[in-house]
Amino acid sequence: KLSFYNITANSLQSANAERMGSHALTVLPYYHIYMGTLLNTFLLQGTAQVVLPKFDQELFLSSLEKYKVEKVHIVPPIASFLAKDPLVDKYDLSATKALISGAAPMGEGLQEAIESRLGVTMKQAYGMTELSPFANYSLDGNVKPGSSGTLIFNTELRVVCPEKGHDLDYNEKGELWYRGPQTMLGYYENEEATKATLTDCGFVKTGDIGYIDEDHHVYVVDRLKELIKYKGHQIAPAELEDIIFSHPAVADVACIRGYDAKNEEVPKACIVVKEGQSLTSDEIMEYTNSRVAPFKKIRQVVFLKSIPKSASGKILRRELQAQFDKQ
């Protein structure tokens, strides 16, 4: 349940964090909280909205070129397209100065690949529906690779140990808890879920693992429930995905829990190979495993035609996990 006050407060918070140019290109669905709040933000700033009915590669690029869009909100699948697709080189995107990605974490590798190719600043923001949605935002002039930005104004953060429940220090990974005027009222007609997510003092338990550094930048590692547990270690799928995606033959990737002969969890990579390219399991394991700690090594690889994702670009990891758990 989000109140008018929640939505209004978060629109003001996001408008303070990012001043758009004369035009905003809107390709994300308005029914998603990310785009819903941006709609209000753009109205507050008097920004003209160029609305695309869906993400079409050529229409998206030609609109950026035609309307000279200075700043664009995107999601990771669009970021992947901008980083690797040869079609991008056919358009003049020199007017675009910054891209802002939300809805799912983006690794340093993808962020740096976009900046190198397009000469733009690649920024990240973080939030969730329960926070209306924004909580962190990368401000102009204060962007760090892999960071989802600093706290937007009037927002508090606790980083809490999932096992013992105490607050953690800088650079220690724990569950992110947020509180602010954008905090939800609760879940509609679900008191049990509300009590499990909203603390008595008003903090929302996000279920996301992350940490904050000495510069107050917040890094989102992965979902608490999606961590892969291998021989006592916890492995974030997003970290492995960022490395694998940097391989020139990889079009898309998602990492999930695989199971060995003893039915113990192991890191498993689900990979979509670029059209016209070839790739073997051994090649991708050699590429990835030379870049990670021994316990993070990929142990299983499967090749797919596509990775299931939501309308906002999040990997539907549970759906993908269920697909292989049934086998």
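(the above was protein one; protein two follows)
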Amino acid sequence: MFTFIKRLQELIAKLKKNKGMWFTTLTVLSVMGIFFCMYVITTMTDRVSKEVYASMTKNYENILKIRIENKKKEFEKLFVSIEQNGTLLGGIENNNKIMFEAISNYLNEEFLKMGYPDLKIKIYNVENKDKVLRNTINTVINTRKPLFGSEVLPEGVFYSYLSPLIRDGEVFGVVEFRDSIHSFQSDFLRQGSDYVFILDKKMLPFISLEYKNNRYEEINEQFIFEKARYDTLFSTTIKNIEEEKFHKFLQSKYIVDDGYFRSIKKITDINGAEIGYMIVGETTESSGGFVHIAENMTNTVTTVALGLIISIILFLF
């Protein structure tokens, strides 16, 4: 080690005697140093950006989880109000269809007036053979337990809460509350973000012709979205994402493209079948947006660090 240092000192002394060689060597080393430092800084800022995006993805995922859980709690509260109405329960138990259908219609009209057009209540008497009950309702009857989750129904895609009405250990009815999976968009728009649900094409046959004709637009070979509900640039530009990028999007759970940060969450129905994805995010152009702030911070750090490096190298001259 001592010998190496001594030889290095001798080399530097020789170079200093040859002024041209000395400055050429310093210039080459300085340029190499700048490029190396730029590479290190760029790598570091890229890593920081990825960590920021991953953190935002996790945050949006938690927000969606809370929104869905809150939806379930809202349904449970509504069910309690039904469960405490003795007159209505008697009508359901006695299969008084005129009575409980009139109450259902009244409540649905009230939901509409309150600004919840997709929130609905349906009441079923287990002895009523006029209609074939769908599998989830039969599951509630057989297990005597409430059921909550997303469903693809003839009227569209919903979050449903089904709970049994029990007397003397026997189920005499089922109450269903449902709300559209698209209803989450209004919450995100109020907070300066955006939301869209994309449906897997394989689920389209479960939706009736009345509710699917001219309503859906293709995003790519696998997914579609309800165009009438989603007219924002955040939603309509999703179809511009190239197929390869889209597959990476599904794997990494986020993408920054077309001026937007987007996070994605897979949605499965009550039975565990994959039905589509929720996509949430925000514009990268908003001055108050987290993505914009993070990018400004990393760019500022890069500029300052690079300026310091160049200043130090110039000082050596």
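Reviewer note on protein two: The longest strand covers residues 156-167.
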